[in-house]
Input
Amino acid sequence: MQKVRYEIDPYNRLIVDGPGAKSDLPKFRKVLDGKFRTDKNNNLSYHIKAPLSEGSAMPNQVKLSGQWSLTDNHELSLKLDKSCRETFGDRITLQGDILDVKQNSLLFAVTTAAKENTRSTYVLNIGGRWKADENNRLSFHVKREGGRYDILTFKGAWEVNKHHQIIYEYEKARLIRKKRQSHTLTFKGYWDIKERARISYVLSADTDSVFDFSTGAGIFKEKYIQYEVGIGLTDRAKKAKRTIRLSGKWNLKKGAGLIFEVEYENKRVKAIVFGAEAKLTDKDTVSFRLKNDIENKDIGVSMELSHKIFRGDGEAFLRALASRRESAVYAGTAWRW
Output
């Protein structure tokens, strides 16, 4: 007996293609109304709303296994394992939109057709973690069994908006309506600096969802920090350049160290924390050599800041620094002075 084969139509419905001439049953082709779902390990299955017929041996759900990826049109594609290829082709592609991006997930809206030519939309929640790849592109690592991850690569260039948030914009070709639509994804997080020639955008420190971007040397001034990031794109010989300019205020806090406070959306303030070796200069400034605040590792940045910008704990630090005269004082979690 021949095996039943399946296809996916443009409305994300499962189509069953029944046995043909070599079977005792006549060949049939039927659209099965249902929905795709994912489990905690992001395995895909199609849940059928109603049986094919009263005497049909069709299952209530069809399970699919394979490797996830993102198409050039920003749709979810599953390259099927060998066991699934006997009833499907090599891969299936879900038509839909990336609805939103969260700290540890990606929400994909799937539109399907129902009776009387109506349409409905449901959402697949794909869990995992966000990372930057070796070309400074955004990528989502889909969690699978056994600690494995499938990688969805966002092949376009990202931007930074006025709230210091990363945004990703793309145009999407519509297969059904034959139109192009613009989409914007906003990643809500905060910037951090822990290493030389690298700046990070943290979405979730608890689950390691962090974009670590390789950069050139940073520019550190009294009112801003600036880095330039090159994004390698497959369709360009030269890298796309993006300037990250963080506006904020410097201060010193006991028990923390030298901090740079950045204001994000809705006036939310988040501080970038540094350790630093500090010395007074002869021109009413303090010279700082910046360190990683956790490991006390030099990040390759030297800067000078005016006495006038420090307040509170910063004023106490300046008095302690003046009492040491020529010796350097370490400002950090240990607050050695």
